[in-house]
Automatic annotation (TrEMBL):
The lineage of its organism: Eukaryota, Viridiplantae, Streptophyta, Embryophyta, Tracheophyta. It comes from Nelumbo nucifera (Sacred lotus). GO terms for cellular component: cytoplasm. The keyword Transmembrane applies. It comes from the Eukaryota. GO terms for biological process: embryo development ending in seed dormancy. This is Sulfurtransferase. It catalyses: thiosulfate + hydrogen cyanide = thiocyanate + sulfite + 2 H(+); 2-oxo-3-sulfanylpropanoate + [thioredoxin]-dithiol = [thioredoxin]-disulfide + hydrogen sulfide + pyruvate + H(+). The keyword Ribosomal protein does not apply.
Length: 378
């Protein structure tokens, strides 16, 4: 698209890169000027103010645009950074390959129903991801990882494909969303990010929420749960649009943790509160001993977040680990109560460049219930 203009609708022209539009202006003298403008704040701009002393400018779109807005793809967003901002999501909310999931989950004693809360208020277009439902159906341990084929079936029911970028949020800020971020990575999908600050930050920024769930959204949430159940019942599930590939190095079992007590190959970091770690506070679930895995260290998950429940900058995260004697040069494994907040530690470590941190899925709920494994107290 080539033409002469002073006023340009920036929503209709330009390359979109991570929430920004990039424009190339060919001036009369043959030189080229690049202008990068934030999609969230710009629609129409008088370019004569951007190109002083030039009068009319010739706006030449790159040939690959072919006269229309280029389709944004999350391929351009780095997977080395584990979170995206609410401004970024707001700017890219309607992009076809951006899928948004509400993965809210709460501790049993909070007596909150995440699906009901989703129906009352959620980010426009978001679907509900049932942390308890999309899980292993053969264990009494809460929300353990499902089978590879079960995860693929559930995610397919949520209309997510391997080409999509997934943004996960929760109702606390950064809490259970980190668990789902980790789950996607465990099953081979790296184009997944946590919404920094979650729904509270979204609302604090003045962005709209949907106050009712569409029939389609409710059906998809139900279909995801049903797909999980069918896989565990040995029934056929179709269609499968998401191919999962299990990444075993991101998940640890009880036996691996037990072996590490002797080998001391990995630094074991526990995300629970210091009182629970020390064994002076009771566990929230009945029948679970108090204390910690011998040799492990405590970095409560709240130390990864600032007062607005957004992920701390890398330099602050580094201090949190180093002050507990944890070397970022060595391998680390994380755990918590039920494998949820351990993923927040993994999220923080990901920002520090440690992208292969395993999580002990059963965590303390499994370990503390065993009578034949050692428990330490402080």
């Amino acid at each position: 698209m080539i033409g002469y203009t002073r006023m340009i609708d920036f929503s209709a022209l330009g390359f979109m890169i991570s929430g920004y539009y990039l424009f190339f202006y060919t001036l009369y003298d043959g030189s080229t000027m690049q202008i990068l403008l934030r999609n969230a704040f710009c629609r129409q701009v008088d370019i004569s103010s951007l190109l002083p002393n030039i009068g009319l400018a010739r706006c030449a779109m790159a040939s690959s645009i072919s006269g229309s807005k280029a389709a944004f793809s999350t391929q351009s967003v780095s997977t080395k950074e584990p979170v995206v901002s609410v401004d970024w999501l707001h700017a890219n909310l309607r992009v076809p390959d951006v899928k948004v999931l509400d993965a809210s989950w709460y501790m049993p004693d909070e007596q909150r129903n995440p699906f009901q809360e989703y129906q009352v208020a959620h980010i426009p277009g978001a679907l509900f991801f049932d942390v308890d439902g999309i899980s292993d159906q053969t264990t009494n341990l809460p929300h353990m990882l499902p089978l590879e084929e079960a995860f693929a079936a559930a995610v397919s029911a949520l209309d997510i494909q391997n080409e999509d970028g997934v943004v996960v949020y929760d109702g606390k800020g950064i809490f259970s969303a980190a668990r789902v971020w980790w789950m996607f990575r465990v099953f081979g999908h790296d184009r997944v990010w946590v919404l920094d600050g979650g729904l509270p930050q979204w609302r604090a920024s003045g962005y709209d929420v949907e106050s009712s769930a569409s029939g389609d959204a409710i059906l998809k949430a139900s279909a995801a749960r049903e797909a999980i159940e069918k896989v565990y019942q040995g029934k056929m599930v179709a269609p499968i649009t998401f191919k999962a590939k299990f990444q075993a190095h991101l998940v640890w079992t009880l036996d691996q943790v037990k072996k590490n007590i002797e080998d001391k190959t990995y630094q074991h970091v526990d995300a629970r509160s210091k009182a629970r770690f020390d064994g002076v506070a009771p566990e929230p679930r009945k029948g679970i001993r108090s204390g910690h895995v011998p040799g492990s260290k405590c970095v409560p998950f709240v130390q990864m977040l600032d007062s607005s429940q957004t992920l701390l900058p890398a330099d602050e995260l580094k201090k949190r680990f180093e002050q507990e004697g944890i070397s970022l040069d060595g391998p680390i494994i994380t755990s918590c109560g039920t494998g949820v907040t351990a993923c927040i530690l993994a999220l923080g470590l990901h920002r520090l460049g440690k992208h292969d941190v395993p999580v002990y899925d059963g965590s303390w709920t499994e370990w503390g219930a065993q009578s034949d494994v050692p428990v330490a107290t402080s």
